[in-house]
Amino acid sequence: MNKNWTLNQQYDNNLTLQLAHSLANGKYSSESREIKSYFIISQLLLQRGIRTFAEAKHFFRPSLFDLHSPFLMDDMSKAVERIGKAMERNEKILVYGDYDVDGTCAVALVYSYLKRIYTHNVDFYIPDRYHEGYGVSLQSIDWAINNGFSLIISLDCGIKAINQVEYAASKGIDFIICDHHIPDDQVPKAYAILDPKCPDSHYPYKELTGCGIGFKLVEALTRTRNENTVSLYEYLDLVTLSIGADVVPITDENRILAYYGLKQINTNPRQGIIALLACADVKPSLYRNTLFFKKEVTMTDLIFSISPRLNAAGRMESGETAVKVLIADTEKEATTIAKHIDKCNNKRRELDRLATDDALKIIADDRLSSVRHSNVLYSPEWHKGVIGIVASRVIEHYYKPTVVFTRSEDCLVGSARSISGFDIHSAIAQCSYLLKHFGGHKSAAGLTMAEENLAEFTEKFEQAVTGIMQQQKMIDVADTLNIDMEIGLDDIGERLMRMLKQFEPFGNQNPEPLFTTSRLVDTGFAKIVGSKHLKFEVIHPHISSQPIGAIGFSLAEKKNLINGKEFDICYNLTENEFNGTKSLQLNVKDIR
What we know:
The protein is of the alpha/beta class and 592 residues long. The chain folds into four domains: 4-61 and 481-591, CATH 2.40.50.460; 70-267, inorganic pyrophosphatase (n-terminal core); 269-349, no CATH class; 356-471, Roll (Diaminopimelate Epimerase, Chain A, domain 1), CATH 3.10.310.30. Helix content is 40%, strand content 20%. The strands form five sheets. It has a five-stranded parallel β-sheet with strand order 3-2-4-5-6, sandwiched between helices. The protein has a five-stranded mixed β-sheet with strand order 9-10-11-13-12, with helices on both faces. Strands 16-18-19-21-20 form a five-stranded mixed beta barrel. Helix 5 (101-117) links the parallel strand 2 (92-97) and strand 3. Helix 8 (210-224) runs antiparallel to helix 9. The chain is globular.
C-alpha cells in the first residue's frame, strides 16, 4: 500500500532558535554546529505546542505532583465512602473488569490494593468472552448474588449496563462504575459513576484508561486513609500497560503515569511482567541482588510483547488468567502462568494469520471493494477472539474503516477498527437501529447484530462512512506518514539521540519523531533479511557524511528503489545494540 508523506508545518526560525538557546543554556552560538541538535529538538517541541523553556521542562521532567486530585472526579467521594462502609460492615466486594488488557490490568490493580487494606471478603470476576460477552453480564450478577456480594466495582465497563445495574440493585447489590467509554444519553442508576467522558463531568482530563480511573480510585482511598501515596507507585506499571494497549493520548496525566510506570518496570518489575517479557525473550539479569533488564524496557516492548499475550488469555481461554499472572507473588507462579499464556498467544497468532488471509481474499475477489470507503467482512469460521486483530491487519492493506464479523451462538459479533482521524463509533451509531449492542471509542468498537441485518448494515455503514468522510474532506484518504522535519545525515549524532530519548514514552499524540532525508544512496550492501525486511546502509553523496545503518521492516519490496539510484527515506532515529555495542540506526518507514 502506497503511503502519503506529509511534512509538518515549519515554524518561525527565530522562535525555534530562541527556544534552542534556552534549552542549550546559552552554551552555543547560533553559528555553532552543536546548536543544530537543540534547534531540531526545539522544532519538535513547538510542533507539540510547547513554546517556552518552562513548558519544555515540564514535558521532559513529568512530576507526580502535577496529577489532578482524584476528588475532582464526580462521585469520587461517594465511591470512597461506600467502599469504607463495606469494609466497616464486613461486606463482600467484587472487583469486575473487561477481558482485554485495560480491564485485566484495572482488576489486578484494584483487587491487589483492596486485598492489602481489606484482607478478606474481596474477589474478582472477568466475564467469559464467548458466553457472557463484553461488559457487565446478568450471569455475573447472578454469580455475585449466589456468593453473597453486596458491592461490585466495575472497571473499564459498566457505563452502558443500565438493565444490569437495575437488576443488581433489586437484589441488594450496589454498583460503583469506573469506566472511560462514551455513555449513551441515559446512564445506569449506580451508587457512584466515575467516568470523565460523562457530559457533565468536571474532571479536567478526559483520556484516562479504565485502569487509570481505577488508579484514581485507590489514590482517593489512600488519601482518605491518610496513607503515603508513595505506596501507590507499585501500581503504575499496570496503568502504563493499559495506556499502551488502549492507545489513549500520552498527554497530561497519561504522560506522567506512563513515565513513572516505565521507571517502575525498569527498576522494580512485578513477577508477572518479568515472566511475560521473558516469553518475548526480554530477560532480566541479577546484579548485586537487583533485577534489571539488559535493555531498557520501552512502551513499544509493552505494546508488542506483553499486550498481545495478556489479550490472548481472554481471546483463547479466560481473562482471569491475565489477572492471575499480574498479581502472582512468586517467580514460580508467574512463570508457570506466563508460559501457559504464551501458548495461548501462539495459537492466537495462527488463527489470526488464517483469518486475515481469508479476509484479504474476500476483498480481492470483490470487484466493488475498490469503490467503497469501508470494509465489512464476515465468516462464521473465524475465531471470535481474533476478529479485532484481523480488522487491524486488513487496514494495513486497505486503508479504510473496517468491521469484521463472525458468528457467536445465535447472532453476529463484530469488531471495528478505524483509520487516523476517523470516528468509527459515530459511524456505527448511525446504524444502531440494526444492532443489539455496540460500544467503544472513536478508533475501535464492538457490536452484536442479528445475521439477517448484515446486508443492510453493510450498506448503511458504507453510507455513514462516506458521509462523514465527505464532511471532513477525507475521501480517497491514504495512510499518511506525518513527518516532523527534514534533516541531513550530518545532523545525526549521539547528542541528538540523547535528547530524543527525553520525548519518551511515545504513543498517541506524542509519536516517535519522524524525519526525512533526501537524495541518499545505498553503499552497496543492501540485503533482504527474514524474507521481508530490508537492511542497508546510506550515505549522502552531495554532503560529506559518514555511512549510517538502516533497517526497513516489511520493506523488502522496496529494494529495487535503492539499487544504484538516489532516493528519499523517512525514518525514526533509534539505537541498535549488537554484542554489547550500541550504534545509531535509522528505522525506515518508507522509501521513495
